[in-house]
Design brief:
30% strand; globular; five-stranded antiparallel sheet; four-stranded antiparallel sheet; single chain; alpha+beta; 608 residues
Length: 608
């Protein structure tokens, strides 16, 4: 019997090209040079106190495009492509990608569907011409590049005044979260009363409502007893997230559970435990079924909801206080803020590391955390210089409460100082800070008189990869902001009336004409009678009596004559903050109501 070590594996041998060997006395020391024939490590850091040394490889934008589409069947044999050359593989993947693009365009435009072999039928050269494919390819490449490429701020700002809007009211207590599907047709809202409501934005009506369940009795748990599975929540629901394909809805709240729902059928699928405190924030990674959950137990958990897995993956540690917000885009990264630890953390999941960005002003404690000696004269001079710069718009930041990605390298944060900060992932300090973004809140004290304090930034939302974002507080308005050139600063753009506490914000841009069938977009609202008390009309379906929803004749003529793309803003509004009851805005002519405000702002894409 021949030795198995020398057994022939295949009938043909792979040719090897002989290459000359180069001797290297020290193989660990390899000379790395760039195009100018200079060592890569010779460049000095410009500012060691502000710059972050980034050693990640820069990957081409088109290399990250998902050409293969859905994952292959694990039971399927791979012998078909064993003898495939690299050129043939690239050609096959390109054809598969173009086929997926044609299917998506056909599905969005009302094509006739597919035949038995999966080919797109019912589309000729006139319907699916080169311009559509070119624009779709350019859009995919820009999205995968991870940089700002949608410049619509000027168009959005000019159309805010005449934008249609609608109010959805179906909760008895403050709305804590509201999410909308990518196509702009379905919306979910959650409340402190433990309910989750599904809305149809085309008709503006409530589709279905789920209410909190009863907690299992104490004697239902114990050794030797089967665990009791509750299909839903048993306490307040504080966070919602929806996958990009509209398949899954995730919810979390005070019962410390992450509940997964079938968003299309609105049925319970699975509940995940593991968090030791309330679940405060949820987000899906764009284009995937990967879910990030943040909690008051100072951890971030990652779940994979793909049908093959549908389970827990890992836990991220690092924050020193409760986590109040989480965000993610297309790459395998996440962004969180730790409230009173005054830090924003940029998680790199694959590399298993994190970047820490500390808010607030300079202090001796912060210098110690960054490795600067307390008795350093330069540090003392810097602190004195920053104190001299401070003006009336600077307040001490004691908590960072919300974060939002602009693109893969730029993000925003807001906190109790009323300031919105712009960050870059290669700078330790904030690139730009806008103090008192929502003004001062005045309270009357019997001993101190009128006390002024900044209004907290309670919510932030960005139109992904664009130069426009929104912020909310309890000022009575939602403020829109415009990013200036090179993402180095931002300025006020417009305001939207929204009385109450803004507990959540979301901005999306559905496809062209997605909202043409919506009644509240295509038709001017009829005048409504005076609103009654909140307790009596909390179960009403919708309210279009907002002053922001009045459309003049000229705007209606434009909307009816041409389908336009819309920037849809969804705001979850309550009379109380999401995590407490330390503030209540109700009565007294404030107009504050528990509900969801949806605003559709038409715009035209511009150039930088």
């Amino acid at each position: 019997m021949p030795d198995p070590l020398f057994k022939k594996v295949s009938g043909h041998k792979r040719k090897r090209v002989s290459q000359p060997t180069v001797s290297n006395p020290n193989p660990r020391r390899v000379s790395r040079k760039n195009a100018n024939n200079t060592p890569l490590g010779s460049r000095k850091r410009r500012n060691s106190d502000e710059d972050i040394d980034e050693r990640d490889e820069v990957v081409g934008a088109f290399d990250n495009v998902d050409l293969e589409g859905p994952l292959p069947d694990v039971n399927e044999s791979g012998d078909e492509y064993d003898d495939e050359t690299p050129a043939q593989k690239r050609l096959r993947l390109a054809k598969l990608y173009l086929s997926n693009v044609k299917k998506s365009v056909a599905g969005g435009g009302g094509g006739e569907g597919e035949d038995d072999d999966g080919e797109v039928v019912g589309w000729d050269a006139e319907d699916l011409d080169r311009e559509i494919l070119e624009s779709r390819l350019q859009k995919d490449v820009l999205e995968h590049s991870g940089k700002v490429h949608v410049y619509v701020a000027d168009s959005v700002g000019s159309n805010v005044a005449n934008s249609p809007s609608t109010r959805l009211r179906g909760h008895k207590m403050p709305v804590t979260a509201a999410v909308i599907s990518e196509d702009g047709r379905i919306l979910f809202s959650a409340s402190k009363d433990g309910s989750i409501v599904k809305w149809d934005l085309i008709t503006g009506k409530r589709v279905y409502a789920l209410f909190k369940k009863k907690r299992p009795p104490p004697d239902a748990k114990g050794k030797g007893k089967e665990p009791v599975v509750v299909e839903g929540h048993t306490d307040e629901v504080l966070a919602l997230a929806m996958s990009s394909d509209g398949r899954y809805l995730a919810s979390g709240g005070k019962d410390r559970k992450v509940v997964i729902w079938d968003a299309r059928e609105f049925k319970w699928m699975k509940s995940f435990g593991g968090h030791k405190d309330l679940v405060s924030a949820l987000v899906f990674r764009k284009g995937t079924h990967q879910l990030f959950s943040a909690s008051y137990d100072r951890t971030v958990k990652i779940f994979d909801l793909s049908p093959q897995v549908m389970g827990y993956i890992e836990t991220l540690f690092g924050h020193q206080d409760v986590i109040t917000s989480v965000d993610s885009l297309r790459s395998e990264t996440a962004l969180t803020c730790g409230a009173r630890d005054k830090s924003v953390r940029f998680w790199k999941v694959v590399e298993e590391n994190q970047l820490v960005f500390r808010g607030g002003g300079r202090s001796a404690l912060r210098d110690v955390l960054e490795g600067i000696p307390v008795d350093d004269e330069e540090a003392e001079k810097r602190r004195e210089k920053e104190k001299a710069k401070k003006g009336t718009n600077d307040y001490h930041e004691g908590s960072i409460d919300c974060v939002a990605f602009i693109d893969e390298a730029t993000f925003l944060s807001g906190g109790d100082s009323g300031a919105i900060r712009l960050w870059s992932n290669n700078k330790k300090k904030a690139v730009y800070t806008h103090g008192l973004a929502h003004g001062l809140h005045e309270t009357h004290s019997e001993t101190e008189g009128i006390v002024r304090s900044p209004r907290w930034i309670t919510a932030l939302a960005v139109l992904r990869y664009s130069n426009v974002f929104a912020s909310g507080s309890w000022e009575g308005i939602i403020r829109l902001w415009k990013l200036n050139g090179q993402n180095r600063s931002f300025s006020p753009l417009a305001t939207i009336p929204a009385p109450g506490v803004i507990n959540s914000l979301q901005m999306i841009s559905p496809r062209v004409g997605a909202l043409d069938e919506a009644r509240w977009v295509s038709q001017p609202p009829a005048p409504a009678p005076e609103d009654e008390e909140q307790d009596s009309d909390s179960d009403s379906d919708s309210d279009n009596s907002s002053s922001a929803s009045r459309i003049d004749a000229a705007s209606m003529k434009v909307l009816k004559g041409k389908s336009r793309r819309h920037c849809v803003i969804v705001a979850g509004i309550g009379q109380e903050p999401r995590f407490g009851r330390w503030l209540r805005i109700a009565g007294g002519g404030t107009g504050s109501r528990n509900g969801v405000l949806v605003v559709a702002i038409p715009y035209d894409e511009g150039t930088p």
